[in-house]
Amino acid sequence: MMKSGSSDVCEIILDNPPVNALGLPVRRYIIAAIEAAEADPAIRCIIIRGGGGLFTAGADIAEFRTDQMQILWLPDLVDRIEACSKPVIAAIWGNCLGGGMEMVLACHFRIADTSARFALPEVKIGILPGAGGTQRLPRLVDPAVALELMISGRTIDALRAHEIGLVDRIVDGDLVAEAFKIASADRLPPIRRTGSIPPPVNLPEAVAETRASLRKGGLSASPERIVECVAAIEADFAPGRAVEKRLFAELMDSQAARGLQHAFFGERKVARIPGIGADIRPRSIKTVGIVGGGLMGTGIAIALLNAGLDVIVVETRGDARDKARDTVGRTILRDVEKRRVSQSEADARLAALTLAPSLEALADVDLVIEAVFEDLAVKKEIFTTLDSIVRFDAILASNTSTLDLDAIAAFTSDPSRVVGLHFFSPANIMRLLEVVRGGRTAPDVLATAMVFARRIGKVGVVSGVCDGFIGNRMFEEYLRQAYFLLEEGALPQQIDQAMEAWGVAMGPLRVLDLAGQDIGWAIRKRRAVEQPDRPYSGIVDRICEMGRFGQKVGKGIYDYADGRTAVPDPEIERLFAGYSAEIGLERRSISDAEIVEHCLLALINEGARIVGEGIAYRPVDVDMIYLNGYGFARERGGPMFQADEQGLATVLEKIRILAAGRNGWAWEPAALLVEFAAQGKRLADLNI
Ligand code: CAA
Questions:
Q1: Who has the most CB within 10 Å: 140, 182, 384, 627?
Q2: Ligand 1 pocket, mutate which of 14, 27, 61 (most atoms under 8 A from CB)
Q3: Is the pTM of this model over 0.90?
């Protein structure tokens, strides 16, 4: 839509809710409007602004790698704006991101009100500012500042944008009126083309310094490529622009970019629950009760207080109550010291916390989260009592990670109001919240849990009820393979390093040491009774028998002489060698690639089983659990994404080879993989 606010001004309004993404129809509209305005002798000046309170979130990410993207390519449109023979003014409020900011760089004059926020976040989706951004920003602002903005992808506000020279004028009032005032003045802003500004003299120095500071060996090449583009800036715009075009295309095709973009859309997709539409109204949550003031309870309390909720923690023991208050207080104080929150904000958060000795204090809360010891008898007592105390419309949640949620719900008179909220430790830090849908959980209770997850800054993902839910059930198969690899010849540090180099935050054996070897041991003992036909390697049990329960006791699979650093222990290597000999296995040399393959295929196979059983709604739900709760690198997209990247036929072939080998019983292929591979489908076809 082109509007002429006054007869000699052309106003171009970006109007493509919800974020005014620069998809093809928008690009067509802009170019048509620019060309018409240029051709119309009555028009003296052009204003570009966004509708709906924001400028634009940039290129339409859903168009990436489609033919649409190539039609009226965004960088060409941006160049066309810069080349316009009439002054083009950008009037910016709200978000001005990515390709939108690149468009603004090509305008001849830039004004913004104080709501404006600028970023080039392309690095976060594995690409680079490919619409001339790498060439224009370092010409307009200090190149070191430009590089930092592009490599971090961070957002700056209007005042900072003005300070660095990105914005010419800050408007403290009506942005549109001011834009028209400038556009209608006798003296129009001069046509200054950013692409024609000579390269700054300190450009080589900024490039060298940035290059030296880059973290080596990242999974995404975006930061290095951004520096290369900036290094290619010459007096003439064209050569640098050609480098940018080439490197942009290279990155766009990379697995890291596809993985990061899968993560971007995935985190939004998991919030949508099939079958729950807009007609289901979530309940309002303002006050939350937490039962249990231990490590988990206090972590949850901090997360909720930080989100502005009122919290009542019930802890029966007085000393534990004091400790809980102390832990919450210290954590919030640390945020003040680190300048993440102001003192007054911290005071308000602490004032919103109540500690109480009994469940009676929860009579009027909107939601209760039980976070006590994993014992069904204890949970029974709590849920039966809560049932008679809380309001009839309050939601009852359990943080259980191992028990049957439906059994817990059955302790209440109304199982439809019971849901699982499985937080990950430390609960105030980890982004994942597994929302467990019981057999009778009401749709509005589930919808409320998902809104609540977002409200407290978590990625909520729904799981059906099964042992371990989605995340831990898959992790068990992953660990099973890691143990088998240990007994066959791999050393712990080799397994951990191979997985960490591939893309997990912490290798599986270090995770075990951190979580406590005794916890894993207890699960293996339980499994030996429940699933005698699915035996574990006994190799790690030997460590537990020695009392090496992990980091908390200074020794586990690794040695922690300083209490923190995992140091390989020769005693353990001897122990493992002895174990292999005892079970008649000749230790062999195992490559990193084989380690990664076994561990990843175990996750893929179990994940596909979980999707096939309907425990996860879609493969993407599994992926978002692994990215947000299990340290899977975002660039890797998640186990289900990885299966599609390899191709399901290839994955199945590899699984079948393993199924024919030692411990082949653990490799029965998931029915979904077999079905989809036969039909030539991708798991992503299920990501509705
Ligand atoms: N392209 C396509 N869709 C987008 C989008 C984009 N750039 N940005 C947001 N959306 C979609 C989201 O997927 C979401 O869709 P659904 O409602 O269907 O799930 C919807 O818009 C609303 O987004 P959010 O839920 O994220 O809303 P929010 O208010 O929490 O956040 C935002 C808004 C800050 C703009 C955030 O969406 C965001 O950061 N977007 C991405 C910005 C970005 O990376 N831009 C750079 C793109 S690359 C580029 O422009 C340069 C280039 O050279 C090619």
A1: 627
A2: 61
A3: yes
